[in-house]
Amino acid sequence: MDPVETPTPSKRKVVVLLLGVAAGAAALAYSGIADRAKGMQEVEAWTERQAVPTVRVVQAQRGPRDQELSLPGTLNAYYTGSLYARASGYVTAWHKDIGARVRKDEVLADISAPDLDQQLAEARATLVQLQAAVQQAQANADLSDATNKRTARLVTQGWSSEERGDTDRFTAASRAAALSVAKANLVVQQAVVSRLEELTRFKQIKAPFDGVVTARAVDIGDLLTAGGTSGRPLFRVSDIHRMRVYVNVPQGFLAVMKPGLKASLHVPGQDAAFSAEVTSTANAVAEDSRKGLVELQADNPDGALWPGAFVEVQFHVLSNPDTLRIPTTALLFTKNGTQVAEVQDDHRVALRTVKLGRNLGNDVEIQSGVTLAQRLIDNPQEFLSSGDVVQIAGESALPRTASAE
Fold first, then answer.
1. Burial label, 26 (beta-carbon count in 10 A; 0-12, 13-18, 19+)
2. Which of 106, 116, 270, 396 has the fewest C-beta atoms lying within 10 Å of its C-beta?
3. In which domain of life is the source organism classified (predicted)?
4. Residue 115 pairs with which residues in a beta bridge?
5. Total structural domains within the chain
């Protein structure tokens, strides 16, 4: 039997070296596999995070007790009179310029109307003729009546023929009718004279009421035509002791526009604020703008408010402090109506139907469907639906209950 050969020291080193190489290769392989698995897990986690949308949330707020509603308005005079020529002629003088304060019936301009004066003179002469004609017809009628009465007695006594009686009777009736015609002609001519006399009063253009001359479009020598109202008025007089303010108010606020509602007026270029109050509404809404016309009035004793000026009207509207408001950007319009997207504690979305109140511009009132504690998505995407998971901006990570599925 041959003796067993023992390995030499060199062979033992080779074996140890090979085992070390194998262990190193195994370690390298394990490290690579582990790094790859970790990388895949990170990629998977990143992908999941990217698949979950990040949203900003807002919460409902209570409205203030007193609400200030600011809207543009236009100032108008309490009364405005546009004066045109009622008598044809030439302007001989004007006495009041723009800015002048005038009293009622104060003369603003004089007109020379020779044609009108001639017509009046002729009409008065004709009136005199007709008055004489009435007197003559009255005398003839009286004579015929007396003759008819006398002839009627003679016919009864047999001293006159019936033919003569009929003739005198018809003659009396004819002259009585002629008297009626003469009187009617006199009445007509008196009306003509009165009309012309009334027109001659318009040779002086007078102020219709106390006020301020806000426009003048007439000068000496201008030819005026009676009845012309298509061009500019000769004068415009405005009563500015009290002003009217007209404001187009959105439909959502018309319900509170009751007579007596207080407001403040701010005129560009003036530091002072003016007080006004609602007096009436148009009781109609314009279809193109969905706004209603509201009239306010404001005292103007110093004349600081001018007709035609722009004014900012700030209504002092009492509001219900229990009414909640949210940004209009939090609304979601779906086939189910107007909704909001609530983020629940597990970061899942729940769509809630809400009932809207007044639109306040950036905010909107909510009558039902929202509480103060709810977190609502601002600018929600249209594809969101109930049950979707979202990430709230600013939070580090999703809860495990939301990310596990």
1. exposed
2. 396
3. Bacteria
4. none
5. 3
Let me know if residue 45 belongs to a domain.
no
Structural domain containing residue 295: 240-318
Single out the residue of 355, 289, 268, 357 nearest to residue 317, CA to CA.
357
- Secondary structure letter of residue 348 according to DSSP: B
pLDDT digits (tens, 9 = 90+) for 44-72: 555 555 568 888 999 888 876 667 789 99
**329-370: per-residue pLDDT in tens?**
989 888 888 989 999 888 898 998 998 887 777 888 888 888
Q: Rg of the chain over CA atoms, in angstroms?
A: 50
Task: In the chain, count H helices and then E strands.
Answer: 4, 22
Q: What is the CATH number of the domain that holds 292?
A: 2.40.30.170
**Hey, what are 275's tokens?**
């007080």
Same domain, 193 and 119: yes
Q: 404 pLDDT exceeds 50? A: no
- Last residue of some domain: 293, 318, 343? 318
How far, in Å, CA of 100 to CA of 96, rounded? 6
Instruction: Look up residue 309 and give its two tokens.
Output: 């000026």
92 found inside a domain? no
Which residue, 45, 57, 46, is CA-closest to 393?
A: 57
Q: Across residues 145-159, what is the average pLDDT? A: 82
* Residue tagged 């403040």 (tokens): 264
Question: The tokens 């998977």 sit on which residue?
Answer: 44
Tell whether 148 and 195 lie within a shared domain: yes
Name the pLDDT band for 191 (thresholds 50, 70, 90).
very high
Are residues 139 and 193 part of one domain? yes
Dist. CA 353–CA 229, nearest whole Å: 59
Residue 25 inside a domain? The answer is no
Euclidean distance between CA atoms 405 and 392, whole angstroms: 18
Please check whether residues 335 and 399 belong to one and the same domain: yes
